[in-house]
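Quick one - first record:
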Amino acid sequence: MRITTMAAALLALTTAPLMAQQAGPIINSGGGFTPIVNPTFEVPKDLTYRVSWDILAGSSKPSEANAAFDGPARFINQSVGNGIPRANMQLAIVVHGTAGEELLGNAEYRVRKGSDNPNVAILEEMSKAGVRIIICGQTMAGRKMTRDQLLPFVQVAPSATWAHAVLQTQGFKVNPW
């Protein structure tokens, strides 16, 4: 009986934060976060944040969205949810490796993977929110992808290395996760 009570209490503690998770206010197809009441680490609202993400690995299941795209979406939602003006965020994602094909439009993705691209909704919402979505040109060449097969808002860089080099000279910091 005591073990059952302890297990129930532990389950309640570990699932409570998940139940408080919310979507939006900018990206609704991903980027859910749990609001933190009265944090003790202050995040200045008047700074400009330039953050990029390096996304290399594709989803293990082609019919499931890539969880890595959730990170920048969560950052946008958390920031706006915490009172940081959207204008104070300049975000980019640099996509290469097996994740490159996740920037394909539905028609080509269906040919290659057998289903519609489950990443389209979150990528479109991020693009509309001003996130720069950049693909490595070397990945495109290696995977025999053409520009017309990509989602229309995707920018093509000579390589992921060049994309990161340019973004870093513009003051972007790569998110380490």
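second record:
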Amino acid sequence: MKATILKISVFVLFFSLMGAGCEKDEELFWEISPNNKSAVIQKEVNGVEFKFCLLNEEREPATVFNQGENFIFYFSVTNKSSEKFYFYPGYAYSEENDFCKVYNSNSQSEGKPYRMITVLNIGIGAYPFDIGDSYIFEQPWVDVRDSIWSWEKGTYDSTQQQPLDKGDYYTAFQYRFLFERPGDNPTLSTDTLRFKINFKIQ
């Protein structure tokens, strides 16, 4: 009888831990779709706020766009804590990261609206992140600029994307955000955060 109770207890503990792990994964995976009330992912982790959305041509958050209409990727990281940090915005630098990449309903890539050219290899001290500061990245899908531009020590150019055809699409990326601060415990990091926006061209 004791052995049976022990086995049941072990199974209950195992499935409880599995459930807790799933809940944690769900807490770190944020997704919106056209049928959601909000067209913005806005979450706070350890005093840092993350905001991700698509803007229409009126600069309003949206997940449904008309065919031929341009849209803008908007991503911000804001220090809402009571501490000063340094923050390296590597999510916008790596070509291996899916940041701003669009996929169709068959999970085939439609590409990115920009190409990374260079990033200055400098210390994190060049990226102050004081109380109330925000790092804001905005990028239109259809980008007609024909010259190189800069954002936070990096240089980019346009991939000259065309308006998307009618259909269902999504943009998604994941990243582990690191923040540096002075003192005995200098590094503050998040777990890997995952963002996904499902959107429609009609």
